[in-house]
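Lecture notes, unit on protein representations.

Consider one protein chain, 367 amino acids long.
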Amino acid sequence: MNTAPLFQPFHSDKLKLDNRVVMAPMTRGFSPGNVPGDDVAEYYRRRAAGGVGLIVTEGTGIDHPASISGASIPVFHGEEALAGWKKVVDAVHAEGGKIAPQLWHVGMARKVGDEPNVQAQPVGPSGLNLKGEKVGEPLTESEIADLIQAYAQAASDAKKIGFDAIELHGAHGYLIDQFLWEGTNQRTDRYGGDLAGRATFAVEVVRACRAAVGEDYPIIFRYSQWKMYDYTARLAQTPEELEQLLGLLVDAGVDIFHASTRRFWEPEFEGSELNLAGWTQKLTGKPTISVGSVGLQAEFTPGANQVEETDPTAHLDELIHKLEQNEFDLIAIGRALLSDPEWPNKIRDQRSNDIQMFSREALETLV
């Protein structure tokens, strides 16, 4: 198989990468006290050495009491945590890699009493969880302003300690996505209403981050149609609705879109073979990252007791074809990189038989 398109350099006006392989953000939970340690730095270093062009870190919490859910999820604020992330940056750069932190707030996906701040209440646009149940009060405009500032401060800190870009997590039913989605945003002020109104929070977050990092620093925005509790959910029912949403984000300052899908080969809208990243590129003209089950033959079930049915080259021919057609610019690899940090180099060198197959045990260790 000719894998050369996967290893062509990528050049945009703000970001240059050695190839088209991105490490997808994956929550790992190996940061005791919410501080990434030397083992986390080594974990990311190995992926850079293994040939990943751009690493997007696991989600890391902005400076808000309810931003994360878990005592071992990393945060992106405070002297100790930022020093830990600086070690990660330095380790990746030493291998010639590029890296972006994924800036995250889980919003109403957090449960009452979750660590690390057990007293903090989950927050969201309307106080609704992802099932549409009311479990809290809507955020006030003052509280929203504080959250926007927390994103901006994280973006500023990322640039200061040497990250090559930032990614804003606007997908999967977390805080930014909760504002975007009508199922969790029933506000009647300027942060709610129609699609443009529901996009106001995301737009203001992007604008604040842009002001914090300047015009030449890359901002990646990750979004999805599906939510954790609803794989059929859609922000946009039509290409026209999607164009409206994405246009607002482009105007606010997004440089690259990371369009999250569960299977990259599936078309997004009827009448076209384009996937979500393909439509995003077509509608905005911006570079896009696609993602979804590269190297996996069957859907992964976290509770399953068996080795996942994997094939390191699964769907690779479809991926190469889409890259050759310039449907999207970059492809994010997730679980295949957990079990084998050298997946890119082995694919490039036609050594797929040497690739370590993914199994659920890979989720339980940081290697």
